[in-house]
Amino acid sequence: PQVRDRLATVRAVDPGAYEEYLKGRYQWHRRTRESLQLAIQHYTRALERDPSYAPAHAALADCYNHLATVLLGGAPPREPRSRAAAQATKALQIDPSLAEAHAALGYARHYEWQWQEAEQEVQQAIALNPSYALARLWYANLLMSRSRFDEALAQAYAARAVDPYSLITTANIGWILLHAGRPREAADELERALAL
User: pTM of the full predicted structure?
Assistant: First the structure.
């Protein structure tokens, strides 16, 4: 019944805004600094057409979260992480039931070391959409950083069950296994990631 109620409130989206959103998602999945900048441009254009399009705000949060990482960002992470939290919060103000926004806010809070709030946000994302693999993956990373390796692996494997060909999920499983002190299994997963 909750899903039926939520689907009944789905609103029409400007086709141009949606097309910009899809182009942004494509660039975001490439996960390079340059592709994230392109994704931000697409999401910004989507929001110029439809400022209340919550998924575009959540997607911007994803971009800023990734630009705040050591691998992709070139500047101190504080500014992009702050922008990520602001965009996720804006998305939640528009649509409190948007799993992607809860996951993005949880991701930002995790790397601000706000462990409890981060865990609550990613758990809420999973409750809203158990099939959202990235929420499970962000949760796995949070659990790993708290040395809760068995729980982390359970979430990462659940993410892979939803999205079995995800390179990022497979690489993260290897990373978690490595930190859990299981290097042979980690190597197997990382080889699988390379094959993907």
Answer: 0.90
